[in-house]
Amino acid sequence: MTASTDPLAPARLEAIELAATLAQRLGFPRTVGQVYGLLFTATNPLSLDAIAEALTLSKTSVSTATRELLGLSAIRQVWPPGERKDHYEARTDLREVLKANYFGSIKPPLERAQDRLDTLVTRFETDHAEGRIDDSSHATALARLDQIRRIHTQIRDVLPLLERLL
C-alpha cells in the first residue's frame, strides 16, 4: 500500500489519530500509536517503507515505533511469500495484548514492590537508629511509605478481579 495508490480514508485517519492520542496518554511516543493505528486498520501486512510513506514519517521513527510495538506484543513481524522486506501486522485481539503485557510487564514489578517497600522501611529505621536522619525526616519518610503501602495493598486486592477480566 502506498499513500498515492491507496489514500487513507477519513475513518482510518481518525482511527490512527485515536491510537496516537491513546499512546501519548499512556506515556508512549505518538508515532507508536500512529503505527499501531495504521496496522490495526490495514487489511494486509505493511513494510517499514509503506508505513513511513502512509504516515509521512521517517523510516527511523517507524522503525523505532515498530520495535516498541513488537516489545509490547502489539504487532508481529511477518514475511509474505516473495517479499524480501520485513512486514508487520497488528495483533488485533486486544485482550491478548493486554494479558501479555499485564503478566509480562505489570504484575511482576507489583509483586516485587512489597519486598522493596519493606526493605526501604528497614533502611529508614536503621538510618534513624544510627543517627543518619533526624526524627522529623524519619517520621515523614515512614508516613509517606505507609501511604504507598496502602495504595499498593489496594492495587494488589484488585488484581485478581483484573486477571479474571483478562
Using DSSP, what is the number of strands? Answer: 3
Average pLDDT: 92
Query: Nearest-angstrom radius of gyration?
Result: 23 Å
Strand content: 5-15%
CATH architecture assignment of the largest domain: Orthogonal Bundle
Level-1 CATH class name of the largest domain: Mainly Alpha
Helix fraction, binned, reads: 55-70%
CATH superfamily label of the largest domain: Winged helix-like DNA-binding domain superfamily/Winged helix DNA-binding domain
Lateral arrangement of strands in the main beta sheet: 1-3-2
Whole-number count of domains: 2
Structure description:
Helix content is 70%, strand content 6%. It has helices spanning 10-25, 30-41, 48-55, 59-71, 94-129, 135-165, and strands at residues 46-47, 75-78, 87-90. A three-stranded antiparallel beta sheet has the order 1-3-2. It folds into two domains: 10-92, Winged helix-like DNA-binding domain superfamily/Winged helix DNA-binding domain (Arc Repressor Mutant, subunit A, Orthogonal Bundle); 95-165. Strand 2 and strand 3 form a beta hairpin. With 166 residues, the chain is mainly alpha-helical. Helix 1 runs antiparallel to helix 2 and helix 3 (48-55) packs across helix 4. The model has no long low-confidence stretch (mean pLDDT 92). The longest helix is centred in the C-terminal third of the chain and has 36 residues, at 94-129.
